[in-house]
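Render this sequence as a predicted structure.
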Amino acid sequence: MNENNIPGVEIIPLRPHRDVRGGLLKVLMRHQLGGAERFGEIYLSWAEPGAVKAEHYHEKTCEWFCALRGEGILWLEEVNSGRQMRIEMNESAPITVRVPPGVAHAVQNVGEQRLDLLAYADRPYNPHDADTIPFHVTKSLATAEPLANRNRAEDKQNRL
């Protein structure tokens, strides 16, 4: 999978604020939305181990994703050019990923526990103005090595 950037896709590193009581993670702030004054919708999506979800793109809607629990791969493909990206997402190295209109996306849970994603869409879903176009972005999944398998192999090597 080509690791080159797709125009408009942004990966925003996040810094959790922690103390003895717990923590706080600011996932998305107004300035990261381009100063937008209007509000779309926030939702939680989850995937069971091994599951692949989404496999679509939007013509008008921009979305942001952040993994809250578990580990997964966000597969992206720019519909017009065919450029692809593979972004690893997990709770231990939090990032927010901006996916602009015209970029197909799918998320694959590659961990051993449920993958929880927090998402924001800049347009609320409207069944009378459907903006979700199915797209098979995961054609490269068959050759991808799941993170969980790679991590187990690394752990085994580290124990040797």
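Summary. The chain is about 10% helix and 40% strand. Residues 147-159 form the longest helix (13 residues).
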